Amino acid sequence: MDRDLSDDDSVVDLSFEAESPLAPPAELLETLPSCDWVLQGDRHQIFFPPSETTGRPQEQRCWSSFLEHRVPVVTEEVAREALLSFVNSKCCYGSAAAGDLVILELKQQNLCRYRLETFSESRISEWTFQPFTNHSVDGPQRGTSPRLWDIKVQVPPMFQEDTRRFQVPHSSLVKECHKCHGRGRYKCSGCHGAGTVRCSSCSGAKRKAKSARRCQMCSGSGRRRCSTCSGRGNKTCATCKGEKKLLHFIQLVIAWKNSLFEFVSAHQLDCPGELLAKARGETLFKDENTTVYPIVDFPLREISLASRRGISEHSAALASRARVLQQRQTLELIPLTEVRYWYQGKTDAYYIYGTDHQVYVADYPERCCCGCTII
Ligand SMILES: [Zn+2]
Ligand SMILES: [Zn+2]
Ligand SMILES: [Zn+2]
């Protein structure tokens, strides 16, 4: 819509201009949804919005519907089945106790496991060389080398780690081989170039000690062919593979890496945390994007805090040295049941964890000690 220009309008309003030429105007960025993380806070480049402001409105998630996602209750029958199949998978556990023990109590808790995976790309450059085999040289005369992050490469599938090396365009130069000084070969160190070495059998004496017969190993010559160089006296330079020249160039090394942050909600049961970290869970929520935002309104406060902590930890660890390509956060329900039992006058407990009913038992009553591991 056009409007009349008054005198006042001839003064250019600079209030919306960026303060630094490195930073594009914020208004411009607002129109680019994929860039909404670029300028936050003090106009510094960061990969995540500060945790105080979420950057974009939180989608209203109805957590109660997620939590209604019930994991089936572990019954006495299920608890015994799980123990029996665990015992049967171990060579030194007897199954009689598992069948006979009296189950006294089942205490089931559903734990929450939060996972954040961040897939990032880092780039470094290094000088390297290879034998020069007379191909054309892509040196600085063909143009300036692109900046490290301007080189376009094929990205592997997300969350698949990989390391690849690329030759930086226009960075090549040919030099004489430093190892052989451009000869392509060098003198054999085994025979100092002679091609033969002293016979080890007669020590060069041509005949064995206290024997009139000539040495059979060297046919009486006192010398044998050098095995290092097969009698040639010299060796092909391993550095230039005999090409005499080396092609030096800048190599771009790209590493795609997955960082993992994991948190399992607190529980009072005596089951090792490393088992719960590996346990199979029921997915409640999965969120994947170029940048994910902290879960702020989850009913379990420790989960919301863990999400915020994980995101800021990854941000701090990666921001200065890598580019984040994709993030994924998942929330899973891990069922954990403590089974208290009585067997031969003693009470003890074992644990059933994960949706696939894995068993952890610290002190099984019927065990021989052939040395197989418990877990
Ligand atoms: Zn030799
Ligand atoms: Zn000999
Ligand atoms: Zn060489």
TrEMBL record:
InterPro entries the record matches: HSP_DnaJ_Cys-rich_dom, HSP_DnaJ_Cys-rich_dom_sf, SSUH2_homolog
Stated name of the protein: Ssu-2 homolog
One MF annotation (Gene Ontology) recorded for this entry: unfolded protein binding
PANTHER family per the UniProt record, alphabetical: PROTEIN SSUH2 HOMOLOG
Species: Moschus moschiferus
Coiled-coil regions listed in the entry: none
One annotated GO biological process: odontogenesis
Gene Ontology CC: one annotated term: nucleus
